[in-house]
Amino acid sequence: MFDALAFLSAKRDPRAHTASDIEQFVQALTRGEIPDYQTSAWLMAVRINGLTSDETAALTLAMRDSGALVRASERLNGPTVDKHSTGGVGDKTTLIVIPLLVACGFKLLKMSGRGLGITGGTIDKLESIPGVRTALNARDAIAQASRVGAAIVAASKDLAPADGILYALRNATATVDSIPLIAASIMSKKLAAGAQFILLDVKVGSGAFMGSLEAGRQLATRMIEIGQQVGVSTSAVISDMDVPLGRFVGNSLEVREAVATLLHPDAADPRLLQLCIYLVAHCLVAAGMANSHEEARQRATQTLSSGAAAEALAKIIHSQGGPANLDGVLASLPQADVTHPVTVDTCGRVSKIDAYTVGEISLHMGAGRVTKQSPVDHSAGIEFVRGLGSIVQAGDVVAYLYYSSDHKEDCPTWTARLRSAITIEPVDSNWQTPPVILDTL
Ligand code: URA
């Protein structure tokens, strides 16, 4: 019988767990034998006292083994890759990068998460499309990936179930921003899926769980070490999350932006596009499908312009129960009851948009979960019509808030908060858009 109190006391004091203690904990957790209050107490102890590299690796492997091992690289015909973001505001890269990788010849079984804290999650975004199922079992996910190139699925009873349980509790107990918990959550899913290459998009900045480049490098290094330990080629791109990524934040709004990016890349947000192309180019080089980053970048750009990635996304969505084509997807997305314009009262250049504040507003508008049971309003979110670098006049509309009429009384607060998140500086001809790619490990 697993001794939960002894396990909790060890991390409270703090003493290191053995790999066997961690395995027993994860097995008991997965069998549903540990009440949420004990798991939450352990999560908080880990958030405060940390886990060693050995403990983190043991947790990752135990979480990986809590469900089926899919072994995608053995079961899918073609190069297999997996990419995962540590989470950000407006981060819809998965919905662009996965179909683009498919169009470049990769096969993917991608396990994604729901929104965590102020950050959005791919599963919530996909579920904003009526009919789409994300709870695929391993067999169906592999069958779909063989047929259409990729499946995008949630942690479930079948796939890394321990992550599903911990993930939901972390979100409701302020224990998300912990390097070992993030590393184990992400790497357990990636290793359970079993691709040949793992590419991590580690976000840093106010809208990410890692506030500084240094912390981002530590998280990336911890995950790369775990990958190396089990012989899976793993690398990381560190990217900026001080500013929301792209023009839209919120589930269905981000699906719209991802679809628009695939259909009309020339009109896409430049930082979003640059990051997506960089991530795909990195995978092409890692898989030996291009000789240099520049060659890979050109190939990714041409493939995107050909429309093949848009077709790949349509097939993935349709296979998972959604509409048959992207026009159908766009027509089916839920629309908010209220659209409220936000104006600025000074003229100058939009030099910063604080990602944390934007994520927090959108969470409270209903785009994320405040408790484990909170319903998600898939239509809620924010659109920036005058984004980073735009020159604005007093009175210009810079953004729209989309929300449910149930929240009418909160609109003045959200409007004021959003204005406070936007920095407008005198126009200076030397101003440059801050880089989106900060490092590659
Ligand atoms: N994405 C995950 O899957 N887990 C985390 O903990 C953070 C981001």
What's the CATH C level of the largest domain? Alpha Beta
Low-confidence stretches: none
State the separation between the terminal residues, measured CA to CA. 42 Å
Q: Any idea what the shape is?
A: globular
Bound molecules: uracil
Largest sheet, strands/sense/barrel: 4 strands, mixed
Give the count of helical stretches.
18
Name of the CATH homologous superfamily of the largest domain: Nucleoside phosphorylase/phosphoribosyltransferase catalytic domain
| Major β-sheet strand ordering | 1-4-5-13
Please give the share of residues in helix.
40-55%
Architecture (CATH level 2) name of the largest domain: 3-Layer(aba) Sandwich
> What's the rounded overall pLDDT mean?
95
Gyration radius, rounded: 21 Å
Number of domains: 3
Characteristics:
about 50% helix; four-stranded antiparallel sheet; alpha/beta; Aldehyde Oxidoreductase, domain 3; Transferase, Pyrimidine Nucleoside Phosphorylase, Chain A, domain 3; 3 domains; about 450 residues; four-stranded mixed sheet; Pyrimidine Nucleoside Phosphorylase, Chain A, domain 2; 18 helices; binds uracil; 13 strands; globular
Give the topology, please.
Elements: H1 4-12, H2 19-30, H3 36-49, H4 53-64, H5 72-75, E1 81-85, H6 93-103, E2 108-112, H7 122-127, H8 138-148, E3 150-154, H9 161-172, H10 179-193, E4 197-204, H11 213-229, E5 233-240, E6 248-249, H12 251-263, H13 270-286, H14 293-306, H15 308-319, H16 326-332, E7 338-343, E8 348-353, H17 355-367, E9 381-384, E10 391-392, E11 397-403, H18 411-421, E12 422-425, E13 437-440
Parallel strand pairs: 1-4, 2-3, 4-5
Antiparallel strand pairs: 5-13, 6-9, 7-11, 8-10, 8-12, 9-11
Helix pairs in contact: 1-3, 2-4, 4-10, 6-12, 6-13, 6-15, 10-11, 13-14, 17-18
